[in-house]
Fold this sequence. Notes:
By secondary structure, this protein is of the alpha+beta class. The chain has helices at 8-14, 30-40, 80-83; strands at 2-5, 20-22, 60-64, 67-68, 89-93. The longest helix has 11 residues, at 30-40.
Amino acid sequence: xxxxxxxxxxxxxxxxxxxxxxxxxxxxxxxxxxxxxxxxxxxxxxxxxxxxxxxxxxxxxxxxxxxxxxxxxxxxxxxxxxxxxxxxxxxxxxxxxx
Length: 98
């Protein structure tokens, strides 16, 4: 099972508390995790990725194993610890302003 941590506003939208656990077939990639997340929680479609382009929304970032994976290719394998469920895949809302 893949563990996913969502920011508070997305957890509220999906009506979940804490971490989400998803079954994802290998290879475990950003795209595979987000596809599984949107399939299980259809209300999240369009909130993390654009409906048309499937590109990440500008103020969201992805982290795992203390690494920023935001600009990694969506089909690059996630770290083994994420694929094994030992570490979560984090979706973080970026803070902007001055």
